[in-house]
Amino acid sequence: MRTELAPDEVEKAMRKTTLILAASLSLSSLAAAGDGPATDALPSPAPMPTVAPAPAANPYSLPFQLRPIAQPTVLRLETALGWHGVDPSGSAGTNDVTILTAGYAVTKGTGFGLRIPFVYNAPSGDGAPASIFQIANLAASVTHTPFPSDPVRVSFSAALSVPVGNGHGTPPSAAAKAANASSQLTRLAMDNALFLPNDLALATGLSCAYVENGLTLQADLTMLNTFKSREANGDAARTNGLAALGAGYFFLPEVSANVEVLYQHWLTTPEAVAKDAARRSNLSALVGARYHHKFAWGWARPGVALAQGLDGFTKETTEVRVDLPFLF
Predict the structure, then answer these.
(1) Which residues contact 82 (CB under 8 A, 6 or more apart)?
(2) CA-to-CA distance for 192 and 280, rounded, in angstroms?
(3) SS3 label, residue 157
């Protein structure tokens, strides 16, 4: 049964409904003004995690006379110009030794190298031998670096020098003999195997380097055994010991400097040492600097060094060395 409202009751109900709607609209407006857009109330997305850049590898300061701690893929041209007060042949003068080196890194830790030396010798003084240009012995090497990581790197090496250089025979020409003797001094008595044209030579070596924050500290030890391979006067076999210490530092990413101390000592007593004990050992020092520039194909690391003999026969030798290595 439907009950009908009186007119005044209908009017009251309509007013009440109007008031409720007006109040609801006012509250909605206030909420929108105070809280801002609805999207502001949504939580902000979490920031994307940042990845720190990988630290730059510690640069290795390539030495001048010491072995590279690892064999790189490289073409290297070294020219050493030496001035001798007197050489073992009894002549003073100038001597130039240029060595072309080609190296190939088979893996990060193993590589092979080949050295081809050329000599120009210009003795001076009355009765001095004639000037001469000649090739010296070829040398092939292998280097294995089982611990190539920083800060300590260790490598082992072996090299074989083949007697194909000029100056062999009995007796050799005076000019060739003087050139080989002077070249040993120009290379600070550290590469004698290259200038023994009658000898096959086997060298084994150990190198250890500390590389950290632009600093390189390195030590080399080498045992050199030579064996007479041609009919010639002299010792049938000889053993030579070599030791070297080097320090290098990058003052700028493009500029580094090196200091090296080099020592050679005959462990056996060759005929020449038996006649003159001053030939037993040689001590030298070298100071040099390099500029480093990166190309699309690799690195150029040209350098220049000054060396001086300090004791033994090399003390009469002053050397300037220009080194042009290109690493790929």
Answers:
(1) 94, 95, 96, 97, 182, 185, 186, 317, 318, 319
(2) 13
(3) strand
Q: Report the top-level CATH class of 74-327.
A: mainly beta
pTM reported for the whole predicted model: 0.81
Please, are residues 197 and 233 in contact by the beta-carbon 8 Å criterion? no
The mean-pLDDT minimum among 11-20, 29-38, 176-185 falls in 29-38
Q: What is the mean pLDDT of residues 271-293?
A: 94
Q: What is the mean pLDDT of residues 204-228?
A: 97
Per DSSP, the three-state class of 70 is coil
**pLDDT confidence of residue 30:** 46
pLDDT > 60? residue 318? yes
Averaged pLDDT for residues 15-34: 54
CA 82, CA 282: separation in Å to the nearest integer? Answer: 15
For 141, the token pair is 């090497």
- pLDDT bracket for residue 38 (50, 70, 90): very low
Using CA atoms, how far apart are residues 79 and 65, in angstroms rounded to an integer? 12
**Local confidence band at 251 (pLDDT 50, 70, 90 cut-offs):** very high
Contact 194, 115 (CB under 8 A): yes
Give the tokens for residue 202. 């086997």
Place of tokens 């000054």: 306
Number of CB atoms found within 10 A of residue 162's CB: 14
Q: 125: which DSSP letter?
A: S
Which is nearest to 156 in space by CA: 108, 217, 110?
Answer: 110
User: Domain limits of the chain?
Assistant: 74-327
Q: Are 206 and 218 in contact (CB under 8 A)?
A: no
Among candidate residues 292, 313, 309, the one with its CA nearest the CA of residue 80: 309
